[in-house]
Amino acid sequence: MKPNQRTRRVMVGKVPMGGGAPCVVQSMLNQPPDDAQANLRQIRQLAKAGCEVVRMAIPRRMYLDTFQEVCEESPLPVVADIHFDAQIAIEAARRGAAKLRINPGNIGGWEKADPVIEAAGEAGIPIRVGVNAGSLDDSLKSRDDLTLPQKLALSAADYVRHFEERGFHDVVVSAKASDVRTTVEAYRLLSEMIPDNPLHIGVTEAGTLFQGLVKSASGLGILLEQGIGDTMRISLTDDPVQEIRACWTLLAALDLRRRSPEIISCPTCGRCQVDLIGLAKQVDDALQNVAAPLKVAVMGCVVNGPGEAAGADIGVACGPGNGVIFKHGETLRKVGEDEIVDALLEEIGRL
Description:
single chain, alpha/beta, five-stranded mixed β-sheet, 11 helices
């Protein structure tokens, strides 16, 4: 069995996490923490894109009323993200949080963290223990006999051990770094050291859209292919909706989960006699609101036409100013270049 088939099942609201459940897609809100309606609008946008769990930062106690309002009206389970102030975490558990995200190292040590564990237990919600390379305990940070991945994994495993000694077992774990190799090795170690705990995977501070996608896909792709990861976030310095798109695209590329159409398109060459780059972008935009696991081919010429894309549910092979629409490799009809997108959408509607 792969690691994520043997982890403990944890419920985040009504969303199962771990225990063989599909890898859960999540993101984080970035609206002002005192504006409930702005956060709820963003949650609805994320839910439409396929987000399953959403996280909200509560940087001050004054924002707890807003957090409670968001929890009461949100269509998704809301995770409270808390640093430095244990009392905020305790109150968030009482005010509707579906899960807490804390780092015991920066919340004041076990003297402050233990009441948080009790509050989560009373509320019946899980806790994510989040360890980051930039916030390790001083005792571990100063050790020269350990690599950074070992420090991250040991820190997280020590936290889990303390939770379990207190009788609290619904613990999700993350150990992130901005470096891909460090992140991958840390999670490999965690999957061996604490095999029962669901793992939240991600490359932290991955960067802007292009760089963040490449870094996250390379790191998380390795882990997911090895069966490591019960929930994931692709962290981008961009619109959180892009994070959800990226998560689903990665899961689909690994054939783990499919929710939206996958575009198969060739990179163009001198044989192409249409604006294939523009055409592929139009098709991609048009399919954003289609929630169906389809394969749609947009091919530049007959060389890469129905033959190489025969496995697509629907597609087009372009010629000089026109395109041949095909379905599962069988030709349906020929249309002009300006009709291709509408023709593809029309045939998708018939599937």
